[in-house]
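hey so i finally got around to running the thing on that chain from the lab meeting. sorry it took forever, my laptop kept dying and i had to restart like 3 times. anyway pasting the input first so we r on the same page abt which one it is
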Amino acid sequence: MKPQPTKLPNDPRWNAVETRDASVDGTFWYSVRTTGVYCRPSCGSRTPLRQNVAFHATREDAERAGFRPCKRCKPDGPSQAERQATLVAAACRTIEAAESMPTLEVLAQQAGLSPFHFQRMFKAVAGVTPRQYGAAHRGQRMRQELGSATRVTDAIYEAGYGSSSRFYETAADELGMTASRFRRGGEEAHIRFAVGQCSLGAILVARSDQGICAITLGDDPDALVRQLQDRFPNAELVGDDRDFDRVVAQVVGFVEAPNRGLDLPLDIRGTAFQRRVWQALREIPAGETVSYTEVAHRIGAPASVRAVAGACAANHLAVAVPCHRVVRNDGGLSGYRWGVERKRALLEREGRQ
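ok and heres what got predicted. didnt touch it at all, straight out
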């Protein structure tokens, strides 16, 4: 009888080698007995036979075992992800320092790539295109300039907008109100709010003319109100409105039973990247969880895991934009703006329902 080959135990690292998973580069290296080289998991060389492969925690371990670095993936130098991150960081600094948005051709030439490959690389790392990054940076500068400029027009040009029409095309989505009103800290904006109680503690719900602009959770109701005042220092905050109490009751009912949905308009303010992340979160069904890495893949920016986590942390609409459904790659619960215990309670509740 022909002898059967020895069956090797399942190892998730081998799956990463077979799929050339660049996201795990730097976490381990593998060597090939028949060639005498060691590689990164993402190496584009021909996939070796499993029985010839050994895994190493560090590249020093691989070299001590007598293996030399692969000439194709160069595992003894910066990874492709690290090299790309360096190029994108340099491009971001160029965009931020420029008076007007540099062209794609100029940025690509600086990186030593074609415009097509540079744009694809930039979006994979940053989660947005160079133009979208430039627009987000201008928006941030615009917020700063609105706080100090005498006229809105002055702030528009100081922030790097070539014309006022370019700014007003996106002002409502980014600021949530007119530029002049934002410059006055939300003056003349009417925001109705109320604080109630739910099983997770105190809950504040606020609504602008556009929709629900805040759902926040905490232990101290007064602290929640102060946070709202800090966001809109000159807005007219209207409380003790019995009609609005019904809206709060509807939100509380949604928190207690997320499966029923929330049929209320939302005033979602943020950068283009943040809004993409938040939309992806709203598409996660109640009772399910995904990792930050998976969210990054869903929005077409697999290298922007940290930026996804930042967008989750910037969310002002608890449960309505369900950032609590995003967990670590190992399924563990990471930081949550309103406390990890509340995150755990929400997930357990959705799991039961």
